[in-house]
């Protein structure tokens, strides 16, 4: 394991633009690196010792932004519910003084979505939000969460692969006002500094911002939504909403659950040569989601070949796309090893030639957003 605390030699060896480049999240006072360490693999694909090594290296390389959630690890199971927060909490406890260097984000899960070990029913009540926050604080072994996000809306919205909004499926039990008031109480209690949303729509962002202004409640700082070469739906209107309202985008799954690394190009997801530790190959439940669609793999193969044709790795192309887009404040990377972390961070600073960007848009015009 790396020496602790990180020595000046470690910092100089891993000097990157990340150390000098912080971005403000919305109108909050949170300033974060443009790359965020996502942690949903901790506790399932990644054991605690490896997770701590990844956290050590991430901090040594200058990343000051960690994102997690109460429902992690992924794939979600009752046995690993809360495991990721617990692993992070144990790491923080081992390294006194590190907490104040970090911006720590976590999420309260929305309605059950088939996970009754989180909560029963279709609601996200004020009591749910309070109880989840208190439990996250305990697991994380911290007194305050810097950015507390609603993981997915209580409303029925087109997310996680759903294409259309269907009013007939609306079962909302808690108004946005009540949810925002509950988040506001957490801020007043000193348990949360700022709030955010995830997997949200333009309507939801507008309403949360409007209600905050009308009722003197905390203003949403961020929205965490998928954004990558095979899912650019953020650009179908949400980007304008966020730009005009001063809300920052946290882009998740920039590598499309591994599709955009090239690891599945030759073998697909289920062949004999499929990478055994890849999430989509390893977990059948992942293959049934948007990232496991044949159309998503077909599009990813085209982007990956475009990268190779221009002397880039698929990972470099996919991450550089997110790292350099005006819509993105910080890109959330998820890794299973220190080597993957270094590869993803080393891609920061890569620029894409104008002709490459033109080719990217040509592929999107033909393939659209197959992993929406």
UniProtKB/TrEMBL annotation:
Sorted alphabetically, the keyword list is:
Oxidoreductase
Question: NADP-dependent oxidoreductase domain: which residues?
Answer: 35-363
Molecular function via GO: oxidoreductase activity
Give the Pfam families listed for this entry: Aldo_ket_red
Q: Which domain of life is it from?
A: Bacteria
Q: Please state what the protein is called.
A: Aldo/keto reductase
